[in-house]
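Hey,

The postdoc asked me to send both predictions to you directly instead of through the lab channel. I've kept everything plain text so nothing gets mangled by the mail client. Protein one:
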Amino acid sequence: MRQNKEKYFNETIAYRNRNPLNIRYSKNVKWQGQVGEEKGFVKFLDFQWGYRAAVKILRSYHLRGIRSIRDIISTWAPRNDNDTNSYIKNVVRFMNGAWRIDKDEGDYCPRTQINLRDREMVLQLLYAMTRVEMSANAAQSHSLRGDAEWGYDKAVTTPGFFKEIKDER
């Protein structure tokens, strides 16, 4: 059974495209590390670039006032394409789950505001969304940790990334 789950994970479009959060393709946007598109989704050179793009998208959401887990997921995975309520519940459950980075933090809920300056909080959100988007189990999404960390670090070191974002610590 485990082998079948591993095989399914490796066959998802998100896995093939190195696009862990299934970012949609747009002819108007050319992401760093983008090498094409497949079935309406961006293809990246590596998972790292997919995570970098995801963090950049989260920044654009933040600047538009989209900051809670519920609002982020409702925008990321709209009802016309997804079971958004289940997606939100799963992200919150995964963020509170056994693979949590900082077990001393308070529990996450749909109203939790994501602070882009809080690296661990953003990484936790990325892992949870990876589990939903790629049908990944905890170990599989955790194995992408280094890629997510690189993507976050690369995105936030882009000049002007935190411009207009107030210190929320």
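Protein two:
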Amino acid sequence: MTETSQDSNNHISPDIKANFSSVIEPLFSEHYLKSCYPGLIFYQGKRKMLQINVRAKDLPTLLQAKPSDKNDPDSGKNRPEVKGHAKEIKDYVIERAKDNKSWVLGTITANVDEQHIEIHELGRGICIVVIPNEIKLDITDGQHRKSAIQELILSNESYLVSSDQFAITLILEGDHRQCQTDFRDMAQTKQLDNSLLLSFGEFEGRVGITKNLIERVRMFQEKTNKIGRNAPTKQRLIYTTNFIARFVSCIFADEPNNDLQGLDVEKLSEALAECLNNFFSECADTKDVSETKHEKLTVSQVAAFKEYSLLGVSVGLEVLGRLLHLTYDQDRNYFDVHKVSELAQLDWSRKNNLWENNVIRRSSNSDTKAYEVVNKPTPILDAVQTVKSTLGWM
């Protein structure tokens, strides 16, 4: 029989296990009609806290969200749910679970008055936590996760999470105002940028292709901000991971938010990297920047490129992506070399009349620049149509 890592790390003698069981089993037996969990006691911020793990089916009855109502923040202990966010979490769990892939949800934080529960301390921070049936834990952080799991456990797909457990951090706090303060303090966490989420995404679909392109396409190598939403010119960065991911989706799906799941990442990456290296080397706007390594680029070069060329901003990449989509033969995984060359021969500078009145508009404010870049779906599609007409691709 193969020894698991759990077996090899478990050096507790049977006698110790038996003694431990003899201590805790009576407590579970005594409180079998209540919610009873092993727990850990710890202290933080001058308060006593507990960590317990709860079965998925217990969450709907054990936890309750008390969001603020209407215009009265004092009416609840957390913010109202953001519409659609719980569904996003539920869909994430369903998709991963059905594909037999790993998934994870963060710890839920809740408040409860210590007087309303029983804590049987066993020493060294180990305890048994007993929660009477009439007591609800007030969510301080994690109401969307709770709602997602609740919807899932009450659905026909409950089997996907029926064996899973979820961590709950209990702040032993009964004061309503302090509970609100706890929520406020936890809610100050900065929202993660899309580029960071993509950079840490699983190596498949458009995430995998994007990561490959950043390494293989000279125009993107070390010129892409992998963790932020902006590309600081002073750091000689031109693109972000999010820009390139949207670009990739446009190329293979003709829309910017397709995850491209189920596609052969390596096969598509190889064909697209070759296509883009040829395009950026042939295009007059990008040739110098593409062929120059990051450490040899100057801040002024990067600034000039981003200000001069449409390909230095995300809207330009999206236009190019949708046009490259028209050159791609999916059956042969091949980009039409002649058509790609035609695109490279275009004048991609912002001053070109080709982009006027679609993604480039004359500014109505005389105190600012003479023109402005418009990053909206309709102008982008209008620009694509204009190029198709100009090149006779209609």
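Summary for protein two, as requested: Residues 70-78 have pLDDT under 50 and may be disordered.

Thanks,
C.
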